[in-house]
Amino acid sequence: MSELERHSYDVVVIGAGGAGLRAAVEAREAGLRVAIICKSLFGKAHTVMAEGGVAASMGNVNSSDNWQVHFRDTMRGGKFLNHWRMAELHAKEAPDRVWELETWGALFDRTKEGKISQRNFGGHEYPRLAHVGDRTGLELIRTMQQKIVALQQEDARNHGDAESHIKVFAELTITEILKEGGKVSGAYGYWRETGNEVLFEAPAVVLATGGIGKTFKVTSNSWEGTGDGHALALKAGGHLVDMEFVQFHPTGMVWPPSVRGLLVTESVRGDGGVLTNSEGKRFMFDYIPEVFKDKYADNEAEADRWYGDQTNNRRPPELLPRDEVARAINSEVKAGRGSPHGGVFLDVSKRLPADVIKKKLPSMWHQFKELADVDITETAMEVGPTCHYVMGGIEVEPDTAAAVGVPGLFAAGEVAGGMHGSNRLGGNSLSDLLVFGRRAGAGAAAYIKASGKNPVSEASVRGASERLNAPFTRVGGENPYTIHQELQQTSNDLVGIIRTGKELEEAIVKLAQLRSRVSTAKAEGGRAFNPGFHLAIDLDNMLLVSECIARSALQREESRGGHTRDDFPAMNPEWRQVNSISAWNGKSVDVIQQKLPSLPKELFDLFELDELKKYLTPAEITSVKGGA
Amino acid sequence: MAGVFAPTRAKIAERTLRTDKWWLQPLITVVVLVSFIIYATIRAFEGKNYFAEPLISPFYSPCLTNGCPDGASLLGQPFGTIAIFGMVISPALFILIFPLGFRMTCYYYRKAYYRSFWQSPPACAVAEPHKTYTGETRAPLILQNGHRWFFFAGLIFNVLLTIDAVLAFRNADGQWGHLSVGTLVLLTNATLLWLYSASCHTCRHTIGGRLRNFSKHPVRYKLWGWVSVLNHRHPTFAWISLFGVALSDVYVRAVASGSITNFYFF
Amino acid sequence: MSAAEKMVKLRIWRGDAKDGALQDVEVEANEGEVVLDVIHRVQATQMSDLAVRWNCKAGKCGSCSMEINGKPRLACMTRMNMFEEGETITVTPLRAFPVIRDLVTDVSFNYKKAMEIPAFAGPTDLKPGEYRMQQVDVERSQEFRKCIECFLCQDTCHVIRDHEENKKSFAGPRFFIRIAELDMHPLDTLRNRKKTAQEEHGLGMCNITKCCTEVCPEHIRITDNAIIPMKERVVDEKYDPIRWLGSKIRKREGIN
Questions:
Q1: Which residue of C has its CA nearest to A366?
Q2: Other CB atoms closer than 10 Å to residue C195's CB: what's the count?
């Protein structure tokens, strides 16, 4: 074999979505040399798919908004399973992160006073989402991509080399985090283009790899959402927290089959779209849970008035948190009141004039026109739940984004867990990746200052290389595409939106079988740009993640947010006190329960006691309130 | 070989793999433009049958030589009769340069003739036949940047041709208050020319496009919005105004030569 | 085979920088599918190592750029029902860029060009959160920021597609809209963008034949709204003696 390609950096950022790029900017501004690794081309990350906006309590549209209200909404949305400190930092810092983007060239939609405009979104009390039409994610990714270029231009002026401090390695997959002496020493991977292996030596690694959607059959995620970062962290000795919480976005396209799962942004509902079943009934009024009764309208007249007057009316139930809406749609379809292609109807055409729809929802109009040949200004859309986001992820220290248990490893964005609790509010992911992307970059910088270099041993390199080459050396194995399809089917059927103990047990058995089949899966053809080989590598990660989800879901005997157990349909305050922690023992996944840190008094006091009683046990309330 | 046959590119023998009739559009452009040029050239050199009180052909207005008939010279007759080798220079040649220059430098016509005549490129993703290409960076094509001067000259002609149309509300004896087919022809022609000018990219730039902050110039922003709507249809106006000019001339020539009589509605 | 399925004929270019050829395959296609679906089926059933770039499959990331029946297109936005029954669909990599393998090309040219355009230079006297811009003032630039960087405009542009040697001196339509975006940005402070557009980025090479606009999947009106306005702004700066004189007297570029 030819000489191994080696690079040495201070920080390796794996993932070039919003969180990764924000981390890279921060690390570079702290004076570090940073490698950014993306699995696809630079600027194509899944962040581009985010439509609705970025949640930040700037109060530009309603000045009553502030970080406390945002914090409260976030905790409520997550059913109080959120790590309070992450939710607090997130709510406090989001406005600064958005304003900062403007100074890098982002052009958000404006209010009349020339400030950043903010829109309503499910679960947010006030209009809070800074947005650009319905392509906010693209704006974020492009802005940060251009910020990276700006920094490189600066480096070219100062050091004569644009890549002296930030270099982007596009179309490169990392297969392993390397450790020496219990601490991170680098990362190992391969160029997708040539199949050639690459070693990165770096004392700090930031994981920002996004989600796990590709383990499910119906998903809004692209091929990249294979849970790489989750698996890399597990194998490096990190923990995943609350992996049972998977968000099914209520409105994915259900037709045509090729785009099944593709997102229909929540803004459609925020801007007046209503959900109806095959009988023409606005069914969401039947699904308002007890805890939300005072915030949501129980009749059509009030719901319709809300679009014009949000102060004196309760909001329409179409804007309930995503988990509620997804379950409602699921129930309607199961009850036989679904649309022809197995969804329900989402109609904006009868509520807004055609030109307003095109102006407010340009990419939606575009998407349906070009992909489904449906004009949403004239007809209703058919929508149904789609796997969208994983709330669970790497367990991190909130302030530094450092992965618990692995010195030198950091995580931010969707791959990190804790921030969103059992259910994420729309708009909170873009703000999450900005806030914690920056903190991960800063955390890595602080860590490196204290710890210094950590060279990689040849033994680690050999081991990583052997594991990487396995799919080529196997004989007579299966086609990875077939195994992937079976995995997706298993996830959808057994670990999907509604779960039962029996099915989850079945899933665990099935996943073990798939794992043994993957260990023989063979990649056909050469090393250069070979998607079969790429999939064989990714499959391993997906199986690991699926196992974490199934085992965590089996353990949690309640229904909460993105985890619904048919056999335990109620939320149970006892279960709120624990996180599910997944760890890898070398052969399989162990899941243990870990106590959640309790809310400090000043944050506790932001809520009405009556509300807290819905979530907390009497003992918890007593311990904070001192018996009140 | 360069371009799509350069050594680094995917080895594909065909200059294009397009399966649609990509050659049709440039072919039509060539046929129509060549026909117009032939007709316009013949008419410009003909030097007669361009005026029949109160109608004047747009090819000749304003008639500037002292060979012009009475009433055809809106701006007087600053030029005498000039002859080369015994051939009298047609009055059309004194003015055609302006509308011709406006259309030659027009952003839409540039696209049309670069594609159809110069084959650069003949159609999208169809390899062009030229070995080298420098675009509009050097003489003579750098002169395309003078489009705005022709635009302003074009506006003067629009005014003159509009006056011609207004004058056509008279009868052959110069009395006002009459309407003939000829009136409508000249009026339509002038309208189309205004639409062509108003939809021009230079017009759009001048009216507001060059501003950085629309919010500080609400009136110009409004105008820019209207011009932008027209600008969307600039190619359409470019073609129909061209036909308008030619057909107006055909009509005036028919009347002037006595082939038909200009029908008066009243 | 269900009623919705039928067989379609594809000719897919396979090869690398050294050599390659079009290969015929037949594959199932279902109702409502796009070309990318069918290519994926070829990959899953017949050519497991067929190289193709893709990501979002929704026309938002701009990864699956290729040439379908000779036209630069996104495979995820090309519906199968636009082809005639029995028609053979030819799929090749982009022909303006070096091929890597099969349908994947080396688009690094575009990233190099991105590096040559000076970044947004915001006002130094405004802190984050103090920016005030009116919607009407940001709308023009917002149109250009819709760009998903599929590079189809770059691929179809004959200036570089047909003339490899022009790649040095020509930024291409994608970066003309970037320059226009910044030049029209209400708060950008860099005032030589018009001059450099013409002198360094090759705006004058463009002969406005509009192929970039024709292929743009985001329907950005690249030529009418970015390139021609920039050409007019360049004329203001460089080729219009009256405006040039005016700007010398007032000592500023353009008007606000």
A1: C218
A2: 14
Question: pLDDT by residue (tens digit) across C136-173?
Answer: 999 999 999 999 999 999 999 999 999 999 999 999 99
Is B144 in contact with B110 (CB distance < 8 Å)?
yes
What's the CATH code, domain C6-105?
3.10.20.30
Angle between the N-to-C axes of helices A428-451 and A136-159, in degrees from 0 to 180, rounded to the nearest 10: 30
Number of Cβ atoms within 10 Å of the Cβ of C127: 10
Among the partner-chain residues C57, C107, C120, the one whose CB lies closest to the CB of A104 is: C120
Q: Which residue from B27, B265, B61, B55 is spatially nearest to B161, judged by alpha carbons?
A: B61
Structure-model confidence comparison of residues A374 and C251, the more confident one: A374
What percentage of chain A carries pLDDT values higher than 70?
Answer: 99
A160-192 tens-digit pLDDT: 999 999 999 999 999 999 999 999 999 999 999
Residue A123 Ramachandran class (φ > 0 left, ψ -120 to 50 alpha, else beta) = left
> By residue range, what is the domain housing residue B72?
17-256
Touching subunits for chain A (3+ Cβ pairs under 8 A): C
- CB < 8 Å from A in window 38-77 of C: 43-44, 48-63, 77
Geometric angle at alpha carbon B44, from B40 and B50, rounded to 5°:
105
In the structure encoding, which two tokens stand for residue B224, read together? 């820019």
Domain extents in chain C: 6-105, 108-250
The structure tokens 């950014």 sit at A36
* Partner-chain residue, chosen from B120, B124, B215, that has the shortest CB–CB distance to C207: B120
The pLDDT of residue B246 is 96
**Domains located in chain A, CATH noted:** 5-245+391-458 (3.50.50.60), 250-386 (3.90.700.10), 600-628 (no CATH)
Between helices A428-451 and A84-103, what is the axis angle to 10°? 100
Amino acid at A619: A
- Domain total of chain B: 1
**Are B11 and C161 within 8 A, CB to CB?**
no
Tens digit of pLDDT for each residue in B77-134? 888 877 877 777 888 888 899 999 999 999 999 999 999 999 999 999 999 999 999 9
CB atoms within 10 A of CB A85: 17
What three-state secondary structure class fits A611? helix
The answer to whether residue A100 neighbours chain C at the CB level (below 8 Å) is: yes
Residues of B in contact with C228 (CB under 8 A): 107, 201, 205
Sign of CA dihedral A190, A192, A196, A200: negative
Q: How many angstroms separate the CA atoms of A147 and A28, rounded? A: 11
pLDDT of residue A322: 82
What is the C-alpha separation between A226 and A242, in angstroms, rounded?
Answer: 17
Report yes or no on B127 lying in a domain.
yes
Instruction: Give me the count of residues in chain C.
Output: 256
Distance from CA of C56 to the nearest CA of A (A): 5
Q: Which of A78, C238, A579 is nearest to C254 (CA)?
A: C238
Q: Which chains touch B (3 or more CB pairs under 8 A)?
A: C
The two three-digit tokens of residue A203, written as one number: 């004392």
Domain C108-250 falls under CATH 3.40.190.120: no
The verdict on residue B265 lying in a domain is no
pTM comes to 0.93
pLDDT at C235 > cutoff 60? yes
Nearest to A99 among C52, C107, C128 (CB): C128
A604 touches chain C (CB under 8 A): no
Tens digit of each residue's pLDDT (9 = 90 or more) over A351-387: 899 999 988 888 788 888 888 888 999 999 999 999 9
DSSP A119-171: E--TT-SS--EE-STT-HHHHHHHHHHHHHHHHHHHHHHHHS-TTSSEEEEES
Contact yes or no for C102/C13 (Cβ under 8 A): yes
